[in-house]
Structure prediction request, 622 residues.
Amino acid sequence: MSKVIRGTIFVVDDNIDTDQIIPAEYLTLVPSKPDEYEKLGSYALIGLPDRYGKFIASGDTKTCYPIIVAGENFGCGSSREHAPIALGASGVQAVIAQSYARIFFRNSASTGELYPWESVDRLCDEFQTGQEVTIDFERNCLINHTLEKEYPLKPLGEVGPVIDAGGLFDYARLTGMIPQKA
Amino acid sequence: MTMTLTEKVLARAAGRSVLEPGENIWVNVDLLMTHDVCGPGTIGVFKREFGADAKVWDSEKIVLIPDHYIFTADERANRNVDILRDFAHEQGIKYFYDIVDRSNFKANPDYKGVCHVALAQEGHTRPGEVLFGTDSHTCNAGAFGQFATGIGNTDAGFIMGTGKLLIKVPATMRFVLDGEMPPYLLAKDLILQIIGDITVAGATYRTMEFAGEAVERMTMEERMVLCNMVIEAGGKNGVIAPDETTFEYVRARTDKPFESFYTDPDAKFYADRRYDVSQLEPVVAKPHSPDNRALARECRDVKIDRVYIGSCTGGKTTDFYHAAQLMKGHTVKVPTYIVPATQKVYEDLFTLKYDGQTLSEIFLAAGCIEPAAPSCAACLGGPKDTFGRMNTAEVCVSTTNRNFPGRMGEKTAQIYLASPYTASASALTGYVTDPREFLA
Ligand code: SF4
Prediction:
């Protein structure tokens, strides 16, 4: 199966922390409640400094950028799972960062909300919000259609199958670590 | 084969005799902590996956601590505490530190306050154990010689049902802090120094182990400051070898037996750094990153609007003792917020004396705002009516742990992270100030 994700990118730089992804005042929303999950999505990246532009257009609840391109240490700060969930709920399918904070990376896999790809090169300086890209899962690479260039990605490794399965629980069931749901 | 303290604790929890960094292992969990912000989501995941009638794996190994959004009129925040309460009753959870009467926290004998400090004070932090918490500062408990780290709701929901978690063994970076601590330095200065050196991603996926004579001489509350902030360097956990100081603290609070582990003398480290603490100076982390270090004295021209002393990092009894020591006999020039981490710390403010006066008398005489109800309060912003929240583009010197944009509320506000000494000295001048100006 050759899997790809194609879409428009939103570009941010280094150390985008969880308070910028989903500010603390929205943490009263409980992600396991479906209506509050949707609401969380509508606040994704609302804590970013204004210079990045709007991630979600005024009046919308979903983003038109399914892929985020970032610099180093994406998702640092708190352990709030609200962060990958807000991004996933807003319509993000993948993040391509130079590196991640540990808990965000893990939460992305455990929840199965999004694919945390790591790029080999620093892309956030070269790419611009609004460009069109394709992530090729089979070849571990990224194609920027606007720049007409291809970039290598680090293999997803052990988290790939976890996200493919739909998260930690589905993966644990699939591999017999916990019993199937009754 | 030689191993570090962290590797030994994880090996024990995995039922293995040896293991190496990078291995993925299933560990048996000794304790799971969650609070009002992540507890309801964790419970939601647990019920979704294990069924509406499922029982938790062990009702005595889960600690529920409402602490984040307590003293607010926000309905959803209040509902979240109700969800914790219902779950605690339904499951017979032994350790649930409830709050019912929000108008007077003192009327709630069970209510504690900030989870990481409450865990230690209630005897839940013990050498050799594995603790997971749905909060990134769970690493605080590593000060007791245990493995402790923060996780998300999904992982926590998994533990709730199974008592197990799959984790990757981190490699250890050792920080040896030698030399005599000068009287104007606190543990906060040391950890800000280290984070400034290795950056906010310098310990990503790693253990930070603190050793050396300066650490050995520290109280448990000061050791907690070091471990509390390893997450600000991206660390997975922080750890300090248990000793008599540890045993005394733990034994005074719990009868539960525990086992101590120590790093082998010839263990392998990912990195090994040494500091002579006698050569260091008071530092701050400037906006908007905990690794944006500067000497406090270099920031003397930064005019400030307020000072905040609180949180799991800087709101413990010792932190207020240090603040009082510096403020005694002086008057603050900017609004100064005193936010005790827990109810126990609050009580200490009114009983513990420095130089003949209680800490609270010293603060009030200096013109500080009356000590607040114990909770996380403005450390993470929170609902608009949160005590001490930054609602405008002001400048604050704070004893908390993060200064990302918007961390204490308004995203254009500026936060300087500092020790209780430096924060207090800054309160007295209205500028970022090196405490040596007051500690002769
Ligand atoms: S005091 Fe601040 S850092 Fe500590 S647990 Fe509360 S919000 Fe988190």
